[in-house]
Write a structure and sequence with these properties.
InterPro entries: CLZ_dom, CNG_cation_channel, cNMP-bd_CS, cNMP-bd_dom, cNMP-bd_dom_sf, Ion_trans_dom, K_chnl_volt-dep_EAG/ELK/ERG, RmlC-like_jellyroll. By secondary structure, the protein is α+β, with helices and mostly antiparallel strands. Helix content is 62%, strand content 7%. The strands form three sheets. A four-stranded antiparallel β-sheet has the order 3-10-5-8.
Length: 591
């Protein structure tokens, strides 16, 4: 027994030591551990209660919603569902009395009350929805509430939520009183606009919206048709719904609520789609209603055709532009009598671009965005790719963020040479997708295969002094299939390095180290050499200095010359005066 007790305490001691090690390890990363700790249930309950009260206090006193948040969009979706319920059900319940006063009439009361509660909650949300002032979101609840109470929207919201129908319900069912609920259409329209902006399939969403609007119009028109039929009198003639209208109620078909609505919807569809295979009208009212319906149907048909045509053209806009470019290349090759083999390669290259959705360059797509957003998107897409390059691994983030904007994507066809041995290196390449082969001069022997993520040509764009290869390519690189490459131009790199002199020194040092490992560096050469571009800039700056000095000397010479001319003119004038005075004196003396 004593041995078992000792063993029990020993296990607990070891367990507590392990727990302490786990806590110390997690504490290094700012994490908490509850290993081996058991909080009292009462303290947990008290803590949860305090947290709930603090959240409720924050919600009542400080909570403000922004129109740019996802919460606001989700709330708009809820209020839109409530609006759609009223849009479809109010007209149907107002016309088909059996629907409103049937077996499940109490469900309508429940749904109406539920939707009205959503409308009331929407008023609270609107009183807590911040607005922009000088580009900043106003979060002062008093100012937001004051702005909402002074707006026109508060009147519309109050009218749309007055519960007259629930007050009158015990006396008489009046669902048409709920037509005021449709005043919340602005929320529904806002939801549609935001969804069209957020969705990745805007054209498909627009088609769904058009179909929804058409169904709603047909639904309302069908309900109005049945309302007119009841007002004129069912079975009064062959146009209204009833037994005299064989199309609506053939012999042997029971007159039910479902039959009434289905035929009304069918009749409305035929009229509004201008098919018109319905019984002709008889009374003046029927003629007026059918005429108006036919006119509305023409407008709806034109709207459908216009919207669908616009959607199709928008959907095919990229394809049309791409096809125009392809046709232009085909015409050029036919005019210049390019051989069929090369023409086939060009066409296959275009097909590959279209199949892989690479018809637009990153620069063209992102051109509409401000520079800051362009940099963020480019950094998110290409930053890690650039980090894989050996010479860029230790560079500062600012330089890499600037270089990602310079990366350009190029697609090479099977058998294309990206570079040949001895070519001047003006670009470096990063393999995004596909395979490349480093081959011998004969094009048969393969030394190595480059796959996704491989980088080559980075040393030839650094102008490293002492490189035994200079800026020449040292290998033949050929594309195996279709290959997507990221290309960084030499000029873009050096333009970026002007603002980062420390990064430039680091890149040169890393390049020299790589060349030294491969025994391709002349140690006697200076560590840096001036590139032709830099030499040109230096010469231009010196030329500007000489021009400024020459201009200053010229202006000084001109100024001195003018002063000298004025002095000579003054001396000549004084000399003339002296000579004239001397002449006059001699004349007086002779007389």
């Amino acid at each position: 027994m004593a041995s078992r007790i000792k063993e029990f305490f020993k296990r607990n001691k070891v367990g507590s030591a392990n727990n302490e090690e786990v806590e110390n390890y997690l504490a290094k990363f700012g994490l908490n551990s509850n290993v081996g700790k058991q909080q009292p249930k009462s303290s947990n309950a008290n803590a949860q209660g305090l947290a709930a009260r603090s959240r409720l206090k924050y919600f009542i006193k400080e909570w403000v919603m922004s129109t740019n948040e996802d919460q606001y969009y989700y709330w708009l979706s809820i209020i839109s569902c409530a609006f759609t319920y009223n849009l479809l059900c109010v007209i149907a319940r107002s016309v088909f009395f059996e629907l409103d006063n049937g077996r499940f009439w109490y469900l309508w009361i429940f749904f109406d009350l539920f939707v009205d509660i959503i409308y009331l909650c929407d008023m609270f949300v609107q009183s807590r929805t911040g607005f922009l002032e000088q580009g900043l979101l106003v979060r002062d609840i008093k100012r937001i509430r004051k702005s909402y109470l002074k707006s026109r929207q508060i009147r519309i919201d109050i009218i749309s939520v007055l519960p007259f129908d629930l007050l009158v319900r015990p006396i008489r069912s009046c669902p048409y009183i709920r037509f005021t609920r449709l005043a919340r259409y602005s929320r529904f329209a806002d939801f549609i606009g935001r969804t069209e902006t957020r969705t990745t399939f805007p054209n498909a969403f627009r088609v769904c919206c058009v179909v929804f609007y058409i169904v709603v119009i047909i639904h309302w028109n069908g309900c109005i048709y049945f309302c007119i039929s009841e007002w004129i009198g069912l079975n009064s003639d062959s146009w209204v719904y009833g037994s005299k209208n064989i199309q609506s109620l053939p012999e042997g078909i029971e007159d039910t609520l479902g039959r009434r609505y289905v035929y009304s919807f069918y009749w409305s569809t035929l009229i509004l789609t201008t098919i018109g295979e319905v019984p002709p009208p008889y009374t003046d009212l029927e003629y007026v209603f059918v005429t108006v319906d036919l006119m509305v149907g023409v407008l709806i048909f034109a709207t459908i055709v216009g919207n669908v045509g616009s959607m199709i053209s928008n959907t095919n806009a990229a394809r049309t532009e791409f096809q125009a470019k392809m046709d232009g290349i085909k015409q050029y090759m036919a005019l210049r009598k390019v051989n069929k083999q090369l023409e086939t390669r060009v066409i296959k290259w275009f097909d590959y671009l279209w199949a892989n959705k690479q018809t637009l360059s990153d620069q063209k797509v992102l051109k509409v965005l401000p520079d800051k957003l362009q940099a963020e998107i480019a950094a998110q897409v290409h930053f890690e790719t650039l980090r894989k390059v050996r010479i860029f691994q230790d560079c500062e983030t600012g330089l890499l963020s600037e270089l990602v904007l310079k990366l350009q994507q190029q697609v090479f066809s099977p058998g294309d040479y990206i570079c040949r041995k001895g070519d001047i290196g003006r670009e470096m390449y990063i393999v995004k997708q596909g395979k490349l082969e480093v081959v011998a001069d004969d094009g048969v022997k393969v030394f190595v295969t480059l796959q996704e993520g491989a980088v080559f040509g980075e040393l030839s764009i650094l102008n490293i002094a002492g490189s035994k290869n200079g800026n020449r390519r040292t290998a033949n690189v050929r594309s195996v299939g279709y290959t997507d490459l990221f290309v960084l131009n030499k000029n873009d790199l050096w333009n970026a390095l002007k603002e980062y002199p420390d990064a430039r020194k680091l890149l040169i040092a890393k390049g020299r180290e790589i060349l030294r490992k491969d025994n391709l560096l002349d140690e006697n050469a200076p560590e840096e050499q001036i590139s032709p571009e830099e030499m040109t800039e230096v010469l231009f700056s010196k030329l500007k200095t000489v021009q400024l000095r020459l201009a200053r000397i010229t202006s000084e010479h001109t100024s001195a010359k003018m002063k000298l001319i004025k002095r000579i003119e003054t001396l000549e004038a004084q000399l003339k005066q002296a000579q004239q005075h001397e002449t006059n004196s001699s004349l007086q003396f002779s007389m």
